[in-house]
Fold this sequence. Notes:
The protein is mainly alpha-helical and about 55 residues long. It is built from two helices and no strands.
Amino acid sequence: MKFYRSVIKAMKETTWPTRKEAFNDTSTVILTSVLFAIFFAIVDFAVQWALKFLV
Length: 55
């Protein structure tokens, strides 16, 4: 029971993000993911193009 009491105590002390903060953080993650996907797609196409000339 000590474990459950400590979990409840920790949850009460936790500060949760506001709706605006959660939206901003989620937007940042999505934007970063899209930018990385575009970057890796460009690198992939460049490597494929370069390999065409070597083979």
